[in-house]
Write a structure and sequence with these properties.
Number of strands: 9
GO molecular function: beta-lactamase activity
CATH class: Alpha Beta
Protein name: Beta-lactamase class A-like and penicillin binding proteins (PBPs) superfamily
CATH topology: Beta-lactamase
GO biological process, one term: response to antibiotic
Number of helices: 9
Helix content: 40-55%
Largest sheet: 5 strands, antiparallel
Radius of gyration: 17 Å
Number of domains: 1
Structural class: alpha+beta
Strand content: 15-25%
Length: 267
């Protein structure tokens, strides 16, 4: 079964790029097509935060306070019933481990959206765009819904977006950076969602990854490391399927496609 067959069997259009880290070898399916980032954008946010900490621009122990006005609903502090405070570094952990949108908003406030964009430009990711924090994305959904318009949040030409190839380039930058990059990968290793990329690999293979999910959109990017030390950057994005957020068959297809791509690289 080809990579395209895996996506077709799940009823989605798939976009994939996988590269052997430390090597120019790669595998792809429509790797240069624009794709919606959704919560995958939090990886770039966390990297810029870690870089600012390393440069002495931010104190990782500084605290932020999540109030009712900050809570968007969802996982982590975004869905809490009561106000809570935590450190900036714990905000980064929450944003990557449980995809906490409120923690990401508060971190964006300190890091700066413009600085995240500057990081992407510095890395040469010219096709990667960030419209703002999760709260900004939510505002576009509310406004478009009220106006009866197609949602900008689902259109890669009008929302935070990238390409699979540029996302594996971001992962490669993290992997080759023993300081801030390694910290971000450690936070990604704490992700609690194991149903996409991680599900495609045996237990002895470690996966540091971040999901992104919106109606009809399911993504994940990550670094896959084998016991022999070889590592691979993988980015898988899908469009289609029912708009319900729970589609385990598509989740499995993401993991299966990632495993098939890495198997090709290893062969």
């Amino acid at each position: 079964m080809t990579l395209s067959d895996i996506f077709e069997a799940a009823g989605v259009r798939g976009f994939l790029h996988a590269r052997s880290l430390g090597s120019p070898v790669s595998v792809d399916v429509d790797a240069d097509s624009p794709v919606v980032l959704a919560s995958v954008v939090k990886v770039a946010l966390a990297y810029e935060f870690a870089r600012q900490v390393a440069a002495g621009q931010l104190d990782p122990t500084d605290r932020v306070h999540a109030t009712a006005a900050d809570r968007l609903g969802g996982s982590g502090s975004a869905g809490f019933a009561d106000d809570v405070s935590y450190s900036l570094r714990d905000a980064a952990l929450l944003a990557l481990s449980v995809s906490d949108n409120t923690a990401a908003d508060l971190l964006f406030d300190r890091v700066g959206v413009a600085n995240v964009r500057s990081l992407l430009a510095e890395l040469g990711l010219t096709r990667t765009s960030v419209i703002g924090a999760p709260r900004d994305l939510l505002r576009t959904i509310i406004d478009d819904t009220a106006a009866g318009l197609p949602l900008r949040a689902l259109d890669p030409l009008r929302t935070s977006a990238s390409t699979p190839r540029e996302m594996t380039a971001l992962l490669s930058a993290l992997w080759s950076d023993p300081g801030p990059g390694a910290q971000v990968l450690a936070w990604m290793s704490a992700q609690v969602s194991w149903h996409r990329l991680t599900a495609g690999f045996p237990p002895e293979v470690t996966v540091a990854a971040k999901t992104g999910t919106m109606p009809g959109i399911r993504n994940e990017i990550g670094v896959v490391t084998y016991p022999d030390g070889t590592a691979y950057a993988v980015a898988v994005f899908t469009v289609g399927g029912a708009e319900t957020l729970r589609r385990p068959d598509i989740d499995r297809a993401i993991g299966d496609a990632a495993r098939a791509a890495v198997d090709q690289l290893r062969s």
